[in-house]
Amino acid sequence: MREFTKSILSTPLSALQDLTDSLISSNSGMGGAQEQISDMIQAVLQASDDIQRDFVDMGFRLFGPESWTPSGLARATADLSARMAEGMRYADPSSEGVAAWRELGNKVEIFRLVKYLKSRIPIPEGRFDLHEFVDKCYHLGAFPALWAIEGLGHDYAHSFRPYTDNTRGLLTDPSLDNLTARSFTMLHAGMGLGFAQELLEGATQSTPASEVRQKLELIIRLCRQNSRPGYEGASMESLGLFTRNWRRKLMKVADEQLLAFDEDAAAYFWRGAGRALFFQPVNFVPLYGSIGNAIRMSKQESPHELARRNTMAGVAWGFTVVNMEQPEIMEALLSQHGDALLGQDAFTNGVVSSIIMRQDTTPDAPFIKDFIEHTPDTSKPQLEEHWDTIVRKPAEEALRKFYPVLRDHHRLGEVFRYQSLSRLVESLAG
């Protein structure tokens, strides 16, 4: 049945590719608008494999053995209903429908920022002065600086290839002591991404587990011995981001091996995987993906509780940081899913962690305060309660109590995994 479904889907997906090529060619004179159309379509086409796989799995659940029991049929029907409800947000003319399209626009804008970053900040081949380019990244503005700094960390790490056990001090060299501290978290995230990309290059599902373990052990060692104390987590989290995005078939063996030799690294790994889920191309597709689908994916792909909590926190991190300038997008999410999210402390952890990271990275950005203090629709008392419980109160406590302690003790890398920040801060302050 799976092969039959794939054959049915292959024709419209091929047709979409042909249509895309035609549109891009015929609109070649449209300048910036044409580029935006092209980037949007490219993001959708990158999702085709995920969409195809998901439709096959959904069909199998609806018509296969899983649906031959009342409970199995109920689960499959509920999944389909949830997807339809999520997709219909884009056809809703109310504020929630507008928020859905704004969220999509924000994702595309990040996609474009990352894609064209090097044209705005041309980084030379080989070694370069990190101070100079950190300043250039911040000149882009508070909102894009975060992704620019992460990309800079990636390119800086790549200038030190090939990596061996003797690769040390990338971000701990004394010459970097006067580097602005607000760049540290995302420089480390970019560095970890560079390590993962280089060392997992060529690894496939058929690579022996022992070889995968050797690669993972070296990546974790590199993260630890090249990170400033307290920022190791920011670099290790990117291993999960890279693996879920570009080496998906390694997820199972990577999880097994990381749990065998470093459970903390496994937690960071799954938090990064959650961040990857939010940015999956399939979740760019109107009427199909978005945040509701990312949350479902985080539950379906998590093999155990440590993975579930961290992937959920990673999804929440991505959703919050991308949409922080437009709090009405979070409001729309809570209006639709607030009851379910009230019991998800991992989601709130991701929201809070992203706000802590944002405060440290761009402390003068006014949109942080505006986001936290946003007043949702006053005609919906339950929505106000959801905002207070999931966003405002936890965020205010985090900035007042948690962030100063984590900053002063140089432990900001800890927010790149799910854990009780209150217990962590109590242990540091005590």
Question: What is the secondary structure topology, with strand pairs?
Answer:
Layout: H1 2-26, H2 32-46, H3 48-63, H4 70-88, H5 95-115, H6 117-120, H7 130-138, H8 142-158, H9 184-199, H10 209-226, H11 232-246, H12 251-261, H13 263-278, H14 291-300, H15 305-322, H16 327-341, H17 345-361, H18 366-372, H19 381-408, H20 421-429
Helix pairs in contact: 1-2, 1-3, 5-16, 7-8, 8-9, 9-10, 9-11, 10-11, 10-12, 11-13, 12-13, 13-15, 14-15, 15-17, 16-19, 17-19, 19-20
Distance between the termini: 60 Å
Q: What Rg do the Cα atoms give?
A: 22 Å
Strand content: under 5%
Give the tally of β-strands.
0
Q: Low-confidence parts, pLDDT < 50 over ≥5 residues?
A: 1-34
Coarse morphology: globular
Describe the main β-sheet briefly: none
Compute the number of helices.
20
Oligomeric description of these chains: single chain
**Series of H and E elements:** HHHHHHHHHHHHHHHHHHHH
Fold and architecture overview:
By secondary structure, the chain is mostly helical. The protein has 20 helices and no strands. The protein has helices spanning 2-26, 32-46, 48-63, 70-88, 95-115, 117-120, 130-138, 142-158, 184-199, 209-226, 232-246, 251-261, 263-278, 291-300, 305-322, 327-341, 345-361, 366-372, 381-408, 421-429. Helix 13 crosses helix 15. Residues 1-34 have low confidence and may be disordered.
In brief:
With 430 residues, this protein is an all-alpha fold. The protein has helices at 2-26, 32-46, 48-63, 70-88, 95-115, 117-120, 130-138, 142-158, 184-199, 209-226, 232-246, 251-261, 263-278, 291-300, 305-322, 327-341, 345-361, 366-372, 381-408, 421-429.
